[in-house]
Every structure is written in C-alpha cells, then in structure tokens.
Amino acid sequence: MAIAADQLEALLRQAFPDADIHIQDLAGDGDHYRAVIRAAAFAGKSRVAQHQMVYAALQGRMGGELHALALDTGPK
C-alpha cells in the first residue's frame, strides 16, 4: 500500500498551513519520498524536534503506507 504525493502534501499542509513544501517521489513507487519543508513552526526547534513534528503530522502512516521519507526541514 502506497501514498500519493498529493495526499502526503495535504497531510503536511494541514499541520503546517504556512509552509513551503516540496515533495519528490524518489523511486516512482509512491513509497519513497523526499520532502523539503520550511515552516514558521520550526523556528527555534532542533532538527529532531522538527522531524518529530512532521512524523506526528503523518498520523501514523510512516512505516505503513509510507516506507521512507527523507526530510529537509527548517524555519521559514
């Protein structure tokens, strides 16, 4: 089971409405993505905390519908 890039982006936009988000399907299989996310919510947060916020936004889909996600996060 895979997740479409637009569905992944929608989940991220719901959590980070002001963010600049760019999604890239790395393998063409809907299972391996790279996400570049710049959001005001990340200001003052460590890289680990930023990634935890992203994983929380995915609502448990990591490891299930979404096998791999390379993250590049930072404040906007």
Unreliable sequence segments: none
Structural class: alpha+beta
Let me know the CATH homologous superfamily: BolA-like
- The residue-averaged pLDDT reads 94
Q: Which fold name is given in CATH as the topology?
A: GMP Synthetase, Chain A, domain 3
Side by side, the strands of the main sheet go 1-2-3
CATH architectural type: 2-Layer Sandwich
- The figure for the number of domains is 1
Biggest beta sheet attributes = 3 strands, mixed
Number of helices: 2
Strand fraction equals 25-35%
> How much helicity do the residues have?
25-40%
SSE topology string: HEEHE
Overall outline = globular
Q: First CA to last CA: what distance? A: 32 Å
- The top level CATH class name: Alpha Beta
Rg over alpha carbons: 11 Å
- Strands, count: 3
